[in-house]
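Handout, page 2. Input:
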Amino acid sequence: MKANTDLLIQEAKKNAALQAIKHVKDNFIVGLGSGTTVAFAIEALGKRVKEEKLRVMGIPSSYQAFQLAIQQGIQITTLDEHPIIDITIDGADQITPKLDLIKGMGAALVREKIVATASKYNIIIVDKSKRVNVLGENNQAVPIEVLPFALSLVKNKIADLGGNPVVREGKGKLGPIITDNGNMIIDANFGLIQNPQDLAIKVKNIPGVVETGFFVDLTNIAYIATENRVEQLQK
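Output:
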């Protein structure tokens, strides 16, 4: 039964990705997020580029997205060349009915937030397991990118704010995860987060914090994959 459900969710993820790329038009600059669901969107966008001769340029927010975009024949550009992005398609680790997000379990939160902030329109695609009423449900931690020099200070300040900070360790090698920017990730569990915007400001104001995984007031529309349909959330 679980295998059938997983297959249905995978198919729904693909459908959610197809809904997202319908927003992409000719000559668009497209921000490309990370994760398995967004990978479906990048593949589908590459198919449109090949079959429809769609002219788009992508700005990847991670090395994973960069590699996949290249494989799919999507031309790559940079924020230096195109500081205003027409549309960004990305995933999330949690999403609320208000379209508040926690992101960053893939350790690309800084570049993802930069791309999202530079974008005129942001689309999030997720499966139903990422949908919650309040951020922080199910013991979801908030990823925080931190300068290595400030690691101890940031951990102490997060604890002062009521969080439980854990430095993210690598898998397959000893030591902490190092981001594409040369920094470390702290996963901080704050429990249920009733006011993510306020907490995001407090955490961001800690010296040494580069960025938080709170994405508040950035999303325009979300497509949520369930077993039998794709649900839409919009402001």
